[in-house]
Design brief:
alpha+beta
């Protein structure tokens, strides 16, 4: 047997194709195995746990709809502002004595707020104290201050600025307010959110093909200066994004849900109200009623639109107490 094997080996040496196959096939098998392992690694990264952690700690926060989905139900009102995306609006808010108080101070966080949402809840919602509000804030990629005393709240690191103000360190957006308020927002994750209370307003605008996708300031609430209102949404944004001047026009949209069927006199009042608004500086101000919804579409300077939202309709609730 040994002799025959020797002859076979000698013959194989002379016949190159047979020798090539025996030498290369094992190499091909190794290459295939390595390729399979490499493909598996590409499709299943080693840092899967880190990716999961990042995903759970960072939520979409590009509109008031995103913010409402992160907050517990029953809020009284909320205001969302894209401070980085609209520098004219940002400057207006920081220069307004009341609105400036609604934005978390950059000195506290050692970073500038880029997107911010203030949500106000009814008295006693979080506890027996005055501060019934909570903020959601994006600081972009900036590292925020971690030099305060840290606490663990529902598995999250929370920094204590003082006994009435705390904020989450590792979440995006950052949640801030009293520790009771922050804790309740963290506990509400996965439960019924504030979005459900206002979703019909967004759907109604979508059905009417009124887009607020470019909104840089948005508000929702359950009451405004119109006595028959039980929910509202309002938004504004630069009418021409390429126009960066301080006097640039803004698009302004609002929808109000009323709690009863409007009488003919109310229709007439709303129609005359819209027609009279050009004297306040609006280039146009259109008011329409669809069943139990009042829809406003208008355009004017930022000052003119904000005056209407703040003072005439009280769409923006800026007082924290």
């Amino acid at each position: 047997m040994a002799k025959d094997n020797g002859k076979s080996l000698k013959k194989a040496t002379k016949k190159e194709p047979t020798n090539w196959a025996k030498a290369v096939i094992p190499i091909l098998l190794v290459v295939i195995m390595l390729g399979s392992i490499f493909a598996y690694v590409l499709s299943n990264p080693v840092n899967t746990s880190n990716t999961s952690k990042t995903t759970s700690n960072e939520k979409p926060f590009n509109s008031i709809m995103d913010g409402l989905k992160l907050l517990p139900a029953n809020l009284s009102s909320a205001r969302y502002a894209d401070l980085k995306g609209d520098t004219v609006l940002s400057q207006y808010m920081y220069n307004n004595a009341y609105l400036a108080r609604t934005i978390p101070p950059s000195k506290t966080f050692s970073a500038e707020p880029q997107k911010d949402m203030l949500a106000i809840y009814p008295p006693g919602y979080f506890g027996d104290f005055k501060e019934q509000f909570v903020s959601l804030t994006s600081f972009g990629s900036s590292r925020i201050n971690s030099s305060y005393t840290a606490y663990d709240v529902n598995g999250q690191t929370v920094e204590m600025v003082n006994n009435k103000y705390f904020y989450t360190l590792n979440l995006k957006p950052v949640i801030s307010g009293r520790i009771e308020n922050v804790a309740k927002v963290l506990e509400s994750s996965g439960n019924e959110s504030a979005y459900n209370e206002y979703s019909d307003l967004f759907e109604e605008l979508k059905w009417k093909q009124i887009s607020t996708d470019n909104a840089t300031l948005e508000t929702v609430g359950k009451s405004c200066s119109y006595a028959s209102a039980d929910r509202y949404y309002a938004a504004l944004w630069p009418a021409d994004p390429k126009n960066s001047s301080q006097a640039r026009p803004y698009s302004y949209v609002a929808i109000i849900h009323v709690n009863h069927t409007l009488a003919d006199s109310e229709y007439a009042d709303l129609a005359s109200y819209g027609a009279s608004m050009t004297k306040y500086g609006f280039s146009y101000y259109n008011v329409q009623v669809y069943d139990d919804y009042i829809v406003i579409e208008a355009e004017g300077s930022l000052d003119v639109c904000m005056d209407d939202a703040l003072n005439r309709w009280s769409f923006i609730k800026y007082k924290l107490s």
